[in-house]
Every structure is written in C-alpha cells, then in structure tokens.
Amino acid sequence: MPDQRLPASVRRLRLTLTFLLLAVALPAVAVPNVATDVTPVHSLVSQVMEGVGEPRLVIQRGASPHSYAMRPSEAAALENANVVFWVGEELTPWLGHALGNLAPDARQVALLHAEGTLRHAFRERVLTETAGHENHDHADEHGHDAEEHDTHGHDDHAEEVDDHHGHDHAGHAHGGIDPHAWLDPVNARRWLAVIAETLAEEDPANAPIYRRNAEAGQAEIDALLEHVQGEVSPVHEQAFIVFHDAYQYYERRFDMNTVGAISLSDATDPSPAHLAEIREIVGEYDVQCVFAEPQFNPALVDTVLDGTSARTGVLDPLGSDIATGPDFYPTLIRQLTDRLVSCLAGS
C-alpha cells in the first residue's frame, strides 16, 4: 500500500517507475501482421482486430480483383504478413501465385473454403433457361440440394459444389464455385468466427478481444439480416436484370427475382444476339429495373433499356464508393439493399 505520508507527486513518480520496470521485465506481445485481399474481407478482419491492430489491404478499393497489378507497398504487405485472409483463387487466381512467392511461410486462410461456408456453383446462364422465380429452387448446377437454413439462415451448413473448374471467362472459372460469397451475410457471420479463431491461435494474448469483437460483429449481422429481409419483402418478386452475375448469394438469401445478366463475363462485351435476348426478357418478364455497375460500360444498359419502361440503377458488389474499415461490410449490404429497393419500388 502506498505510504500516504509521502507527497502525492512522489507517490505518482513511484507508480510510474513501477509500471516502467514491469514493462521492461515483461516480454512484448507481437500482434500478427495481417493482410487481406478485397475490401469486404478487409472489413471483417478489421472488425475482429479492432483495438489490437489493423490489417493491410492488398487490392485497393474500386479495383477489379480478377487481374490486379500489385504496387510495391502491397507486395511488401504480403511479404511481411504472418496471416493472410483472402476469398480464394476463384476470385483472384493471380494471388495464389503471389502468395507462394511472397508469403510462403504465412498462414493463408481462403475463406471460400472455410468450414461452414455456403457455396453456390456459377450459373452459366442466369435466367434465359430458368426465368422468374423458377430460378430460386436453391439447387446448384451440379444437382446438389439446396442449403438448409431458417428464415435468417443462422446455421453453418455449407452447400458443396464441384471444385473442378470449367472454362474460364475473364478471370472467373465458370463451372466451379461462384466466389462472391460475401454477399450472403450468413457467410460473413461465419467468417467472423473463422477469422477470430485463426487470430486467437496466432496471438493467444489477445484471443479474448478477437472473440469478443467477432461476437459483436455477428450480433450486428443478425440485426442486418432482419433489416434487409424487412426492406426487400415488399419488392422481392419484382423482376430485375443485373450487369453481370455477381449477386446470386444475396438473391438466394433474400429470395430476390433476378431474371438475367447483360454480360456473361467480367471483361468482354456481350454479343448483339445476347443483348437482343436480354431485351426480349425485359418485356416478357415485366422487368422493373436494369442495373449497371460503375466499372462497366453504361451504354450497354442504355441499349437494353431503349424503348422499354424499365428503370435503371447502379449496384456494386465491392462498394467502390464506401470507406474501408470495420463499418464497410454492413454499409455495403445496406447500400446494395437500398439501391435495389429504391429502383424496384420506383422511389
């Protein structure tokens, strides 16, 4: 117990010296250097690491992940990483090679293949064979059964699809796994736990913080699921067309009615025949909205809309206009919901 007879200034100096001596005596706890691939993954890792450290983002906001050219600072982030969280080679085939060269000793976690992740096979054709709500039978292209989940999907059953890749369309290996799995918040909920347990194993001293942060993030996602379900419920049967087929995880989770995609790949313009087919779908299925994406040619959307009463909006699966950080992921899902509902409701 401090000697109360000593002046307060002396007692404070004693306490300061004691803390300094303890700090010197105890070994420093090194927080892992963590790198991530895309902004949604960076956001989830940032949530788990909040108060401990910050992950490095390798693929900058607004850039296409399919064929990204890293800057020297981003390559250095991989080289210095103890842990790398990424979606997987299905989204960034080039990154697997970079990890082998730059981070061979780092712990590499491909979240798309983490236990409990719900996966869907790529759709070779979005709607033209299974228009309207017929495409919501929740079975992938390889004939596997639908995911089993309740209204909010708070189970961790993963839908397995054939991992053997078919022909490659501009960075996406169609015929394999669709990598846009972050657009199902139930996957993000699962990934928070995977991230927390990985970091807890690498950094046991901060394990309670990682786990507490993950639980808080999961509670936020529970609320987000309920919010989105309530928002889309009045318009979920309205037909719409997307620019490219990146949204099926969101569509299946919330039973939305996508009836076509303008582009069947990320880097090549659709053929005139395909555009004509999409225009027919607009009329046949009473399409309410045709959505562009900020990275792609808006003139193609104008071509589809010409002479129709359909409205137009903009969707972005990577949230290129959202600030990176812990709040990015819930903001992305809310933005996607707001833009879908606004256009479909005509507001």
TrEMBL record:
Chain intervals with Basic and acidic residues compositional bias: 134-177
The entry's keywords: Ion transport, Signal, Transport, Zinc, Zinc transport
SUPFAM superfamilies attached to this UniProt entry: Helical backbone' metal receptor
Protein origin, superkingdom: Bacteria
Chain spans, region Disordered: 134-178
Leader peptide range in chain numbering: 1-30
Family classification: Belongs to the bacterial solute-binding protein 9 family.
Name of the protein in its database record: High-affinity zinc uptake system protein ZnuA
